[in-house]
Structures are given as structure tokens and as C-alpha cells.
Design brief:
The longest helix is centred in the middle third of the chain and has 25 residues. The protein has one domain. The strands form 4 sheets. It has a 3-stranded antiparallel β-sheet. The chain has a two-stranded antiparallel sheet with strand order 1-2. It is an alpha+beta fold. The termini are far apart. Helix 3 packs across helix 4. The chain has 6 helices and 9 strands.
């Protein structure tokens, strides 16, 4: 429906759109898009812990991360275990950087525009995370914005399940933190 209103010497055209007041959360989740982030910088420019040098032969050197060693020690790891965990973490970082130099890097944008409500997050470097948890979070943010505007969102128990799953994952990570196998 289109309406017109005169305000002093101007005529204002207003397009009125109607939407159902009840929206299923799955419909919002289906509106989420994951696409390549064309404006992303290389990961070592924006991520802490990826500082490195690269020589002419392509060998990568990382500075020793004493703060990570201190962190492991502060949460209960013995000094030797903290050193081993730090060394493993740095080896993983070096392997990641070697892969980035060899294969390039991909960074993703997760966005949702649904009935005039929207949210997005960019700079996600893991497609599985972008298409999974980040997509759900963006959809949940859009759903919260819609609820604040007066919409009713059905099947929104996903937020509770996501919170519980994140807590289980965090607990699992802490339990297996000192497995050095």
C-alpha cells in the first residue's frame, strides 16, 4: 500500500509493507548467507599470535610466546607441560601459516537481511564455523531485533540449545586441555 502526505512544500510518499506477525526461526536461519569477504586482510595482520618472519626460502619463524606459556601455567599446568603445550600451539600456528602461504587464505562474511532487519559479521576464517555457529548467532541477533519490534518468533529454543552446547564444548575443552598426545 502506498500513501502520500504533504508536509509544507513537499509531498512524502510512504510505502507500507505488511508482514506476518509470527515468524518461524528456521525461515530467518535460511535467510543467512555465507560469502567470501573481499575486504579481508591477511590473517597475520589482524590476528594476535600470528606474528612471524619469513625468509627468502619460505621458512617461517615464530617468536616464543611466553604469555601463552604463562597462561597454561596459571591454570594449573606444570612448567614442563606448559612449555609442551606452548610448543604444540606454536607448531600448529606455523603449520597454519605454511598452509596459508601455500594455498592462500579464505575469509568469510556471514550476513542476514530479513524483512528489513539485518546483522552481519565479517573476517571469519573457518567456513565450517561461519556456516554453523556464526550463522546461528547472526540469525539469533536478527530474531532478537525482530522481537524487540513486536514480532513473535516460533521455535526459538535454538538459543538455549546453542548455549548449552557451547557450555558442553567449553567444559570438554577444559577437561582435555592437558592431554599431550
Amino acid at each position: 500500500m502506498r500513501t502520500y502526505a504533504r508536509e509544507y512544500n513537499i509531498v512524502v510518499q510512504v510505502d507500507v509493507r505488511t508482514f506476518p506477525a509470527v515468524v518461524d526461526f528456521q525461515v530467518i536461519l535460511d535467510a543467512v548467507k555465507v560469502s567470501p569477504d573481499e575486504y579481508a586482510d591477511p590473517p597475520w595482520e589482524t590476528c594476535d599470535g600470528l606474528e612471524h618472519t619469513r625468509d627468502n626460502q619460505g621458512d617461517i619463524s615464530l617468536p616464543w610466546d611466553g604469555s601463552l606459556e604463562e597462561y597454561y601455567h596459571s591454570i594449573g599446568a606444570a612448567k614442563q607441560v606448559a612449555k609442551q603445550l606452548t610448543a604444540r600451539s606454536m607448531a600448529d600456528r606455523r603449520q597454519y601459516l605454511m598452509g596459508v602461504y601455500a594455498n592462500g587464505y579464505e575469509v568469510w562474511v556471514v550476513s542476514c537481511d530479513f524483512q528489513g532487519f539485518g546483522d552481519s559479521v565479517g573476517g571469519v576464517d573457518d567456513y565450517a564455523y561461519a556456516s554453523g555457529e556464526a550463522s546461528r548467532e547472526v540469525a539469533l541477533n536478527v530474531a532478537a531485533e525482530m522481537q524487540a519490534a513486536g514480532f513473535e518468533i516460533k521455535n526459538l529454543s535454538d538459543r538455549c540449545q546453542l548455549y548449552k552446547q557451547n557450555r558442553r564444548d567449553l567444559y570438554s575443552q577444559r577437561v582435555h586441555l592437558f592431554d599431550c598426545n
